[in-house]
Amino acid sequence: MSGIEGKVVAITGAGSGIGEATALLLAERGARVVLGARRAERLESLAGRVEKAGGEAAWVRTDVTRRADLSGLVRLARERYGKLDVLVSNAGVGLISPLDDLRVEDWEEMIDVNLKGVLYGIAEALPVFREQGFGHFVNIVSTAGLRVIPLQSVYAATKNAVRTLSEGLRQEAGEGLRVTVVSPGFVRTDFADRMDSEVKAQIVEKMDSIAIPPAAVARAVAFAVEQPDGVDVGDIVVRPTAQD
Known about the structure:
The chain is α/β, with parallel strands linked by helices.
């Protein structure tokens, strides 16, 4: 029996990319997945794929900038399956641009999604984990927080904030709870879709050249989740071998 089998795992940003790949892999290994994302049609389709393959899935439209939506995601897990073992905070946006462009609304959106979205998840899941006496936070961060480069200042700042938050949470969590940070490098996703056209072209070219598939990151999440009680995998970096 796998250390994943029977666990209830809620995943934000599950409609595509890393979130989708994580849901498919964990469900394949016996987890019951609870899917959250803004695009309901993607969630419905993904849940159908999980169930067709013999797994169990539930879904609810989730905008992580709304605390009530995170509350609904956690509530769905408990109502449907009776518990919540893992919260994978994966939803994120990377609206990168030069600071001189003063794209303040983009900055605010990255703060709202990448940082406040994780905080809202903690606010909803932590009391549940305390009540249960067990639980696992898996926060998807980025190698952008390890090596800051031009154009990514605000994006990297939000990811570094989550890294700091996660370490503080780990120290406060106590022996019953676990906290894992997974930092992907270039991954083949729709990450660049909303970027400025010139910046997007640079990112897409890099992705086409070296990016790894989302399944590579999903396997890292699975590794952390499958560990026995009392084993906390703190930090995992997953990037292409060709990435600087």
